[in-house]
Amino acid sequence: MPQRGSFAGQPVLVFDLEQPRTPEMPIYPAHRPGYYYALHRRHSDPPLAPTAGARSSASGMAVIMEHTGTHIDAPCHQALHGKLYGGIDAVAAATWRGFRELGAETLRPLVVPGVLLDVATSRGVECLAPGELVTAVDLEACCARLGVTIEPGMAVLVRTGNGRFWHDAERYLDAPGIGPDASRWLAARAPSVVGCDTMTWDLPGLVDQELGCDLPGHVVFLVQHGIPIVENLQLEELAAHRVVRFTFVCTPLQLTGATGSPVRPLAIVPA
């Protein structure tokens, strides 16, 4: 449920768009272990110093792969013909400690107008079927139905309904995807960020003939336009409350040289 709060002196509802991170959450094999947490120090351990008295402490270690859970892709995540966004040489920019350019630390904190394009509701279904594609026609139809115009700098979130399966990893990974024409349609409108409720924006395995590669949306946004992508969003509550417009807040961690960052995005609407 959304939380009540205050923003700019006005009462608001705050929607948490992050999916919970657990070792059992949906993860592609290439990104395992995904999430692992070890409680290194417990309250039952002896205090570190005699001055601690009755006080105790606990601390742990987290292993989080960049592209698992709710996360944002940095531009260095993808290249085409060996080039990153802006024509940067992808091989020369990489070191064993990360990228010299276009890493996660270059992603700016976002507090921007956002819009939810609920394709599932627009089609009259709870969720798009596995393998189905969201098309440019779908996005145009959503905008027309909602009376929305995509303006430069907006955050555009696309709902397929797939987020409801987060606790069923096999079903969640067998997802719909955003088609290449939809990606090009959106990119042409210059959003500051795009996001979806699937593991990957694209339909895995789909090869775009124009680009000659798979994951064409990643190439369109990250390589050709430098627009980051947020994946594994929880959009069900927004849809249930029929929220269309909101303030989108997303603050990537400054993970220097990283190809992405975990995020906890928020959607804020007037109460």
Summarize this, please?
With 271 residues, the protein is of the alpha+beta class.
Can you offer a commentary on this structure?
With about 270 residues, this protein is an alpha+beta fold. It has one domain (about 5-20, about 65-270): Glucose Oxidase, domain 1, CATH 3.50.30. It is about 15% helix and about 30% strand. The protein is built from six helices and 18 strands. The strands form five sheets. The chain has a ten-stranded mixed sheet with strand order 1-2-18-16-8-10-12-15-5-17. The longest helix has 11 residues, at about 135-145. The protein starts with a strand and ends with a strand.
Give the amount of beta strand, in percent.
Answer: 25-35%
* CATH superfamily membership: Putative cyclase
CATH class category name: Alpha Beta
SSE string? EEEEEEEEHEHEHEHEEEHEHEEE
CATH architecture: 3-Layer(bba) Sandwich
Q: Which secondary-structure class do the elements indicate?
A: alpha+beta
Mean pLDDT: 95
Molecular shape: globular
Radius of gyration: 20 Å
| CATH-defined topology | Glucose Oxidase, domain 1
Low-pLDDT stretches:
none
**For the report, how would you describe the main beta sheet?**
10 strands, mixed
Adjacency order of strands in the biggest sheet = 1-2-18-16-8-10-12-15-5-17
The total strand number stands at: 18
**Count of separate structural domains:** 1
**Total number of helices:** 6
